[in-house]
Design goal:
Elements lengths: L4 H18 L19 H13 L10 E2 L5 E3 L5 E2 L4 E2 L2 E5 L13 E2 H18 L3 E5 L18 E9 L2 E4 H6 L32 H6 L4 H12 L29 H6 L4 E4 L5
Parallel strand pairs: 5-7
Antiparallel strand pairs: 1-2, 3-6, 4-5, 7-8, 8-9, 8-10
Helix pairs in contact: 2-3, 3-6
Length: 276
């Protein structure tokens, strides 16, 4: 005997309620709540992901699973999960025509899930963000069989719709000329440049000025970068590197190489760990 749509929906509701009941211990913030994403253990990240799920911050392509004693059997700390594209009440829209019909990410490392949720919550609270344009969540360019994207360790951030308007990394940053006063040649960084700065800042060191210009693209991207230095891997000797300094956070003004600048003209690249 088959089951109708109504019967299947009822069964799913019952299963959901049962798992929710088993995971009530994850409703309060678990250990790891105050640990930066790049420093989380796999176990801390898994517990945070369950905390997000039981509090309806994220939806995954399957429910968590427990044994008869209530021990979590999925996800295990080193498992990857697939997220539906409404995260913390924000719509995630893939910024790629080939991915326009996607309704979920690819497999994500649990530490990356925490990083993505925290960025989303921060931007929603501070900027009123309702839509985030993304790429690379669990899938790479295909040029390498194994990289931080295909391993689920990274996210590409292309822009967002905020209470102050739509900010787009390509249009509002990467396609803007680099002023000659900060080293620009013919509107761009010289291919051999190893030292850059933030092209949108009138004075790259005037952080107070950038904060005051928070409703502008310059202020928005600066704020995103500064927040993500507290969560993403940046490999800098500075605790909070400035835009233009060497950093594992890539963007249109990345200093390390012309290859990285061109490859990140239209987005930020954030990751929680390197590929091992």
């Amino acid at each position: 005997m088959g089951f109708g749509v109504g019967s299947l929906a009822l069964r799913l509701q019952q299963q959901y309620a049962a798992v929710q009941k088993q995971l009530q211990r994850f409703v309060p913030p678990p250990a790891g709540f105050g640990v930066i994403a790049r420093s989380l253990t796999h176990e801390q990240a898994r517990d945070l992901v369950l905390h997000y799920w039981v509090n309806s911050v994220i939806t995954m392509d399957r429910f968590p699973e427990c044994d008869g004693n209530g021990n979590v059997t999925w996800p295990k700390p080193t498992d990857k999960v697939i997220l539906k594209l409404n995260i913390a009440g924000v719509k995630f829209t893939p910024d790629n025509p080939e991915a326009s019909a996607w309704v979920q990410t690819r497999g994500l490392d649990l530490r990356n899930v925490v990083m993505v949720v925290r960025l989303t919550q921060y931007l929603k609270d501070r900027w009123g963000v309702s839509v985030i344009f993304w790429g690379g969540l669990g899938i790479g360019s295909g040029k390498q069989p194994k990289d931080t994207h295909t391993e689920g360790l990274a996210m590409d951030f292309h822009g967002a719709i905020t209470s102050f308007g739509h900010f787009d990394v390509d249009r509002d940053w990467g396609s803007k000329p680099v002023p000659a006063a900060i080293g620009g040649v013919d509107g761009g960084w010289p291919p051999t440049a190893k030292k850059t700065s933030y092209r949108l800042a009138v004075n790259p060191l005037d952080f107070a000025g950038l904060a005051r210009s928070a409703v502008s693209p310059a202020g928005f991207f600066w704020d995103v970068y500064q927040y993500m230095t507290t969560q993403a891997r940046h490999d800098s000797t500075e605790p909070k590197p400035r835009i233009g300094e060497g950093s594992g956070i890539h963007h249109p003004d990345t200093s390390w190489s012309d290859y990285l600048r061109k490859g990140h003209k239209n987005h930020f690249h954030f990751e929680v760990a390197a590929v091992k």
